[in-house]
Amino acid sequence: MTADKTRIARQFIETIPHARALGMTITEISDGFARIEMAYDERFVGDPQTGVIHGGAVSALMDTCGGAAVMSHPEAPAGTATIDLRIDYMRAAVPGQTIVAEATCYHVTRSVAFVRATATDDDRDRPVATAAGAFTVERNS
Amino acid sequence: MSRRPPEPVQVIKQRRDAALTALVGGVPYINFLGIRFDRRGDELTGVMPFGENLIGNPFLPAIHGGVTAAFLEVTALISLSYLWLWEDVESGKIEVADLEAGQLPRLPKTIDFTVDYLRSGLPRDSYARARVTRSGRRYASVQAEAWQDNRDRPIAQGAAHFLMPRGDG
User: Fold this and answer.
1) Cβ contact, residue pair A86, B56, below 8 Å
2) Among A6, B30, B60, B148, which residue carries the largest CB count within 10 Å?
């Protein structure tokens, strides 16, 4: 993937209004891999008694990260949309900590891109959530 | 014959609405997305009014897939929790005053969630309903569907599993 394409992918993600609303930042994107961070924010809390971030915010992060990984793949599509996404929640993210999602687009066919993703907080060895999804491959022409 | 007279309708409504408000109102993320719930008896409909910050693709434009997923997940969890609380609220085992003070019992936790995107979410209001297909002692299965203009043309469907809170025993 060219540096130019990386730049375009990064710009594309950062112009997404909802990605901005959730304060997402791309920290790495190349060749079918993307890492996006989401800082802790009280507005995203799902359980006010514990201050734990809502699973839905983690889902949005995973979905965006998965799409970014697809866009950055060497056989990169011109565009992509999620077909389906499954998310497994292993444990609650620790309140106050940034959530980091990493997604890998591990296979691309003419029409479908397959993605796996993991989300962690400061404890990188114990995932908060994992995800698997299929995305559309939209070709130019 | 001694039969208790039926409760006045406003007492019943107040109790049921208080339970719903207690479940939904205190959750920052639900407010962040602007989701609210309409109630007809024990049937809930999630309503998510369109807002610019929900957009995921500014060129179409379309609602962010993560927002749609979150909307389905919130609807599934609130619907399951509401049905789970229903009997205790109706019997008076859970006091309305406690609910209004924000004292909620522990709620189910999401184990996993799968979302299928069927159509792109247009820049307009979305609705969702969930059906609890099984509510066991430890696990529950819930299906949810979201739509916009046409009930028969859903934009997404979801299936979720939840871990139920442990009872006292």
Assistant:
1) no
2) B30
Summarised one tens digit per residue, pLDDT across range B18-74 is 899 989 988 999 999 999 999 999 999 999 999 999 998 888 899 999 999 999 999
DSSP reduced 3-state for B156? strand
Paired residues of B93 in beta bridges? none
- Which residues from B are below 8 Å from A42, CB to CB? 28
Under an 8 A CB cutoff, do B65 and A19 touch? no
Cβ pair A61, A101 in contact under 8 A: yes
In a domain, A141, yes or no: no
pLDDT (tens digit per residue) in B102-140 = 777 888 999 999 999 999 999 999 999 999 999 999 999
Tokens of B18: 């208080």
Closest by CA to A100, choosing from A134, A67, A129, is A129
Overall domain count for chain B = 1
Distance of CA A72 to the CA centre of its chain: 12
Is residue B55 a part of any domain in this protein? yes
